Amino acid sequence: MAQPAYVQGTLDTLLSADGSVDPAALSLADTTFVVLDLETTGGAADGAGITEIGAVKVRSGVEQGVFATLVNPGERLPPFITVLTGITEAMLAPAPPIETVLPSLLEFLRGAVLVAHNAPYDVGFLKAACARHGYQWPNPRVLDTAAVARRALTRDEVPNRKLGTLAQFFHATVQPTHRALDDARATVDVLHGLIERLGSFRVHTLGDAIEFAKAVTPTQRRQRHLADDLPHVPGVYVFRAADDRPLYVGTSKDIKTRVRSYFTASEKRARISEMLGAATRVEAVECAHPLEAEVRELRLIAAHSPPYNRRSKYPERVVWLKLTTEAYPRLSVVRSLADDDAAYLGPFSSRRTAELAAAGVYDAVPLRQCGHKLSVRTPTPACALAELGRCPAPCEHKITPEDYATTAALPFRNAIHGDPSQVVDALMERIEALSDKRRYEEAAVLRSRLIALLRATVRMQRLSALTRLTEIVAARRDTVGGWEITVVRHGRLAAAATSPPREHPRPTLDAARMTAETVLPGRGPVPAASAEETERILAWLERPDTRLVETSGDWVSPVRGAARFTSLLNRAEAAASGKDSSVRSSVTDRSDDARSLRL
């Protein structure tokens, strides 16, 4: 039987269900420890093999109790174990088996922190014994004195971290003898010596000691004081350099707990380690509720472009796919919206994605792909695409502007503002034809174009439905009985507040509306905020527990809009990522028109 996995406790285990700090973890001086040692037959932790248990319960340096017993392992005792420990088979024969000892031992451990030297070994044997004999392992917090010593003591002080070496270094009153109780008493003195040493590392609580025992870098250990004065509130935190420059911006439902996690072993990102070395303070921005925190984080990142943030730094770097207003319109990738009657699709985060969506349009409708300015009077020579039958050749006047607008431009306009089925159907037919011919690579290219186009149209129609509203007020219950209140104007968060528990939320809501930011309408699907901010707000509004309180108009989307292709989009994305090899979705509102995307 394999040895059960041992997992060192983390800071989250120090929090109770309501998120409050466990009183037993506030101070090492007020923590009850059970210092334990086992002697075994030397085999694997399979639920047997324990020959002796010794445990000492201590609190504030005072011994509270002792647990010691020999244990009949139920197997032969190897001679070298007898030589090492002095325990013989004759001594173990009348001893109780482990299943008899476990109930008393588990009761002795109740409510205490388990301490052992090389704790994974001892914990592994006890967990295996509990599993074998039907006892529930209480999963106590565990502190490993060997791991703490590796962090707290240098090689110049002790050549190794063996229990005998540490007991001698700390002048233990009892030296280890390879007998359980003696070794446990020696570990008690080692523990007290290490706790004194931990004070110089600003480690005063059980949680800090557990994290200290892990592979925390010197920079993390040195800088952990930056989290000392932060509040336990939702909001935004900003790591700042000596010259007050923002280095990194983040958000959390609990600022203090989140910032503390940067100084634990769980934080392994190289760039964050570099950032911690340059930070001199952490600024906390308290927010009314998590949505406001998310939005403020986006705005701060956009405003300051912190060097250690990777996402959301340049929301203005977006592009749009524009259908020009010429006699023979064409698609053009532009960086901003003009005050014209042109049709725009976007925003796209990169030019490559916009061009991928444009290629999908070209595959579905006969829009011209050349960049020439065409005259309705003077024809110009046709390009190779016209000769291949992939362009209606408006340059040679083989199609009238009216027919071109109907067959080429109108399907694109419908796709972005209403029903994209004409474009989607054309792409699906081509994908299925290529799949039937086993030309899967070409079909996969079309699939990626369909994904880019459909994702952009679904996103734009969702954004437009919200941003055209002058105001929308919504609320949802928080965890303590109050209401999280949000005022949104043209897709921008204009105000946020939280009403107190057991009070009517109307006064808070009215105050939020009166003090909300004035937001003027503008062009496009995101006239007043970044697309990412509006999408965060949409996700919050669409939660099942969010209530719409007031709206300035109807919050609606086109009846036959792009949203009805969401299932197709999800399946196509799953197929593209390799999570699903067969994508089947309806591309019309009739089930008998279901198409199969076999890629």
Automatic annotation (TrEMBL):
Residues 574-599 are annotated as: Disordered. PROSITE patterns: GIY_YIG. Keywords: Exonuclease, Hydrolase, Nuclease. Residues 587-599 have a biased composition (Basic and acidic residues). InterPro entries: DnaQ, GIY-YIG_endonuc, GIY-YIG_endonuc_sf, GIY-YIG_UvrC_Cho, Ribonucl_H, RNaseH-like_sf, RNaseH_sf, UvrABC_protein_C. It holds the Pfam family RNase_T. SUPFAM superfamilies: GIY-YIG endonuclease, Ribonuclease H-like. GO terms for molecular function: exonuclease activity. The keyword Nuclease applies. Residues 232-310 form the GIY-YIG domain. PANTHER family: UVRABC SYSTEM PROTEIN C (PTHR30562:SF1), UVRC/OXIDOREDUCTASE (PTHR30562). This is DEDD exonuclease domain-containing protein.
